Amino acid sequence: MCHYGLWCPFMLLAKLTDEHLDNADVADAFIHLCQPIFCEMTATLGSFAPQIFHEFQQYPLPNDAQNPCGAWSACAVNNTRNRLAETNVHRDVKESPYCCSCVFACGDYIGGDIVLYELRCKIESPGDVPLFPDSLIHHNNEKAEGSRKSTLAFNMND
Q1: What average pLDDT does the chain have?
Q2: pLDDT value of position 12
């Protein structure tokens, strides 16, 4: 897993993640490639959750910096490379409790659905790009067969 974008916890101003700085060309190319998805999800967030969208705009950023992932400050890139993409049930408690993250998956795989426990629903992927408060809702990815890749856009702020 790689984290690209701006990292904010416990800092007065955000800075690029170490992984982004160490692989700047790859990170910048990946974020550029994903811009259409980030833009679409930013528009969706602004339409359906304007207060959350407004809160996203309040986080302090360094001089003239912009969130690299649309409304989100960073993304986690997961590449299972034919390993199981199953995760334990968890909440992402280091993220802001009043924010939504978005996740999108791709690859040649079967399974790997996202389970949102409190909502009692399953999101079948690829193709779906859910927005949900992952710090409040217990969730996991089910077992996948094949090669599953995913990106989670999030705000890591206190």
Answers
A1: 84
A2: 65
| Residues 16 and 5: beta-carbon distance below 8 Å | yes
Instruction: Give the pLDDT confidence of 75-120 residue by residue, as tens digits.
Output: 988 876 545 567 889 888 766 666 788 888 888 888 888 999 999 9
How many domains does the chain divide into?
Answer: 1
Structure tokens, 133: 């408060």
Domain hosting 16: range is 2-154
What is the pTM (predicted TM-score) of this model? 0.83
CATH assignment of the domain containing 14: 3.60.130.30
Do 90 and 134 contact (CB within 8 A), yes or no?
no
Cβ neighbours, 10 Å, residue 48? 11
Q: Which residues are CB-neighbours of 41 under 8 A, at least 6 positions away?
A: 70, 71, 102, 129, 131, 153
Please give the Cα distance from 60 to 77 (Å, whole number): 24
Name residues whose C-beta falls within 8 Å of residue 96's C-beta, 6 or more positions apart in sequence.
Answer: 55, 135, 155, 156, 157, 158
Phi and psi dihedrals of 8, rounded to 5? -120, -20
